[in-house]
Amino acid sequence: MKYSSTLFHDRFRSHSSGKRERCMNIGSSVVPFVLTSLLLTSIFIFYFLNSTNPLSLIHNQGPNIIQKQDQEHAAQTTNVSSSKPYKEEKTCDLFKGHWVPSLEGLSSYYTNSSCSTISDSKNCFMQGRKDRDFLNWKWKPYECDLPRFDPRVFLNMVRGKKMAFIGDSVSRNNFDSLICILSQEEIPKDIYKDSEDRNRKWYFPNYDLSLKMIWSRFLIVGEERMVNVMYLHKAGKLVGCLYCEEQNLTHYNSDYLLRIAFHAAFKHINRCNRCRKTLTLFRTFAPSHFENGAWNNGGNCKRTSPINEGEINYGLFDWKLRNIQMEEFERARNEGKKKGQRFEVVDVFRAMLMRPDGHPGEFWGNQWMKGYSDCTHWCMPGPVDMWSELLLAVLKREEANRINITS
């Protein structure tokens, strides 16, 4: 199986009908916690969970993150047993698994009527989508079960904290999904919205929790011009390019530029002394699924159920990109440990590669781009809600690790 989304170079060059030049700066002028998608929507997201007490995240919660026995009902997943040592549970890789059928409707935490904050472009049922089977699947790690997300457990874990999602439109998709799930427990107060509805802030008064969406397209200092090339600057000096014709410049591949962008961002976080009270969670990017063409020449996504692992093409450029992300993340986490920095990862890539059925497709209601399909963002409700399940499990694991270290 081949999706046009894997052709990163084509997506870069055809992102807009005009031609654009991107200038990237690597060096002392790195913008803190800002990300670039390099025209590949939502390469990653940073979650920043800030606490006044860096050793206090979860109160009165057991250390285990996984239930070994399959418990289908949501209420059962709130009782995470602490009878088994964490070391036994740690062997489970949450990010390797497959999608299995769930009980009818069980995978949905909300509906497009019970959550009023779903944007029109992600409200696939409102836009006319009729099939519903894509809702009836759950992510099953090979070695354990991933508990359903419990809003009350999550809200108690992050009580009194500030959490920021930093990213672009798919990051916003992730943020909105979490807001919808949590709103089934408590309706948050809408504190702030900018004129373009990109930067948002919600507040949950009963839990003293602030959730922020900080919209950002660039990880490093960048600017756009109407030329379809990318120039790389280091400490203000032009050092190379991508898709340029100049013979006196070093010509880089896109994967190299992505690597140094990730490296620069993580390096900045590790140099930030104030960040030692902040847990940085890094989400890998979620691939899009354009079939039968690219986004601007007839590409669509009309599947109605997940694919299995045997249908995955492991030679995709997307895999190379994900591996670059993970290599730079591991490098940053190992370096950060020496300085008291805290990093965790929410790796959604493999799971979402199997969900070509979860996109709005033609049901996104964009009146200015009729005839185009959205195979990048995710329907709400839909598979994107599973990202919150992984987030909750990773938070529990991170706390359990620190309990074991300090005990």
From TrEMBL:
Q: Which residues cross the membrane?
A: 29-49
Record's bilayer topology term: Single-pass membrane protein
Alphabetically list the UniProt keywords. Answer: Membrane, Signal-anchor, Transmembrane, Transmembrane helix
Q: Name one Pfam family in it.
A: PMR5N
Q: Does the keyword Coiled coil apply?
A: no
Would I find Transmembrane among this entry's keywords? Answer: yes
Q: Which GO terms describe its molecular function?
A: O-acetyltransferase activity
**Which residue range or ranges hold the Trichome birefringence-like C-terminal domain?**
146-225, 233-393
Q: Which InterPro entries match?
A: TBL, TBL_C, TBL_N
| A GO cellular-component term linked to this record | Golgi apparatus
**Where is this protein primarily located?**
membrane
Q: Where in the cell does this protein reside?
A: Membrane
Q: Which domain of life is it from?
A: Eukaryota
Q: Which residues form the Trichome birefringence-like N-terminal domain?
A: 91-145
Q: Which PANTHER family match?
A: PROTEIN TRICHOME BIREFRINGENCE-LIKE 9-RELATED (PTHR32285), XYLOGLUCAN O-ACETYLTRANSFERASE 2 (PTHR32285:SF28)
> To which protein family does this belong?
Belongs to the PC-esterase family. TBL subfamily.
Q: What is this protein called?
A: Putative PMR5 domain, PC-Esterase
What is the organism lineage in this UniProt record? Eukaryota, Viridiplantae, Streptophyta, Embryophyta, Tracheophyta
